[in-house]
What we know:
With 496 residues, the chain is α/β, with parallel strands linked by helices. It folds into three domains: 4-137, Rossmann fold (3-Layer(aba) Sandwich); 152-277, Beta-Lactamase; 305-494, 2-Layer Sandwich (Alpha-Beta Plaits), CATH 3.30.70.1230. 44% of the residues lie in helices and 28% in strands. The protein has helices at residues 16-28, 39-49, 65-74, 94-103, 115-151, 153-159, 164-168, 188-193, 199-205, 217-229, 274-297, 300-307, 330-334, 339-359, 385-407, 439-450, 460-466; strands at 8-12, 32-36, 53-57, 83-88, 107-111, 173-178, 183-186, 231-240, 246-257, 263-272, 314-328, 363-368, 371-376, 412-427, 433-437, 456-458, 470-480, 484-494. The strands form three sheets. Strands 11, 12, 13, 14, 15, 16, 17 and 18 form an eight-stranded mixed sheet that branches. A five-stranded parallel sheet has the order 2-1-3-4-5, with helices on both faces. It has a five-stranded antiparallel sheet with strand order 7-6-10-9-8, with helices on both faces. It is extended. The two termini are 50 Å apart.
Amino acid sequence: MNDNRQFSILIIDDNLNNLKVISKLLSEEDYQVFSAKNGESGIQKAERTRPDLILLDVRMPGIDGFETCRRLKSSELTKNIPIIFLTAISNMQPVEKVKGLNLGAVDFISKPIQNEEVVARIKIHLHLRSLTQQLQEQNAKLQQEIQERQQTEQALVLAEKRYNKLVKSSIEGLFQVNISGQYLSANTALVRLLGYDSLKDLITSIKHISQLYVLPQRWQELIDTLESQDEVSGFESLVYQKNGKAIWINENARAIRDATEKLLYYEATVTDVTIQKLALEALTFEKDRNEQLLLNILPARIARRLQQEETSIAERFENVSVLFADLVGFTEFCSTISPKEQVSFLNRIFGQFDNLAKHYQLETIKTLGESYLVVGGLPVARSDAAVAIAHIALEMQATTAQIGETLGFPLTLRIGIHTGSVVAGVVGQIKFSYDIWGETVNIARQLERTAQPGEIQVTPQIHDRLREEFILEAGRRVAIDGTGEISTFLLQGRKS
């Protein structure tokens, strides 16, 4: 059981079937789910329940999704709730998507929905909402502390005579510590930053300053640096407050010596940088997430070009080997298992195909239902693309048969392979995909469709590249749309 019950989600959709399907999906993920059949009732329910996230249909009678979003974002009660639009991609123009984003929506989910995509996107936006709320709470606390410190600035000046000039212009924590690690003095700001009631409370509780550090050796690292450099700036560490909570601090320290260079004590200023650390973690998370999303759907070389703001990516590649595979028996197998188990099975088998593609340095282009498309020779050209494709074809067949045997259900693949020139590029502006086109793709697809279960059907061009290393047998005459009849060969295995 997960902990999603702490989050609530409101679904606004006039389609009762959509409401039922999405509500069931999210309830199974342990979210608290509310629903509304139109924009008016959705606004009222949002103001009453204050959900953590809203799924909003664009096309609805009465007030549509855009007007509903505008009114939600105009209300003080609901303006901070993230909204994800539900829409059929074929019915939505780019200008409408821009309109939705300008109104305050954070994302779009296409209909018909893909369960794993819906759950993944919701988790991401709920996590970002949680991070945002933490940052807001920390910021509010910081503002309160700043106000308190400003109000007591005069008292600090009088109490800390040895730091008069610095205290007048700073609200940082200040301290002096002797060479044995005991506090000599500290200002009120430091006492409050560390959560103690008074300077006496701090000095009595902390027998050695290393006790403050989550990693006690951190203090020794600071001392070692001071002994060689006399000054250290920007020294960041995790320290404990009195209540046991850990916070990040930034220290600027220096060693104080007498005229004979004998070390007398150390003094330092201390700043709480926990808020900055949280913000940096949130930014790093978002950057890593975006990069990983791109790498999951695009070749690394293409993803880097998009990150460099290249707006149009389309290239022609020669000598590309294209493999189309279709899972035979999957439809019958699906009748024996639940939809969730179907998705789990496809993830399992396609995940193994992806691992094989990575091993042979091939590029997975996409999956189409129970079909799989992988190529060799792009986006980086290679002379052995056909050989690598032949290896993965044989291992895909073996993997499928092994999984079918484990499940007790006969499963196999129909595979078609051809080599030639293709055009490849990135399509989409909000949801990117890397795809390929051309006669080579069409021929490989038709070879797959005309193959028998368990066959790997290839063209004469592929035969010429493989005959030295692989066993191939004469196949059949196949009619190819736009090309005519061709003689095919069947890839049987490796010669050694």
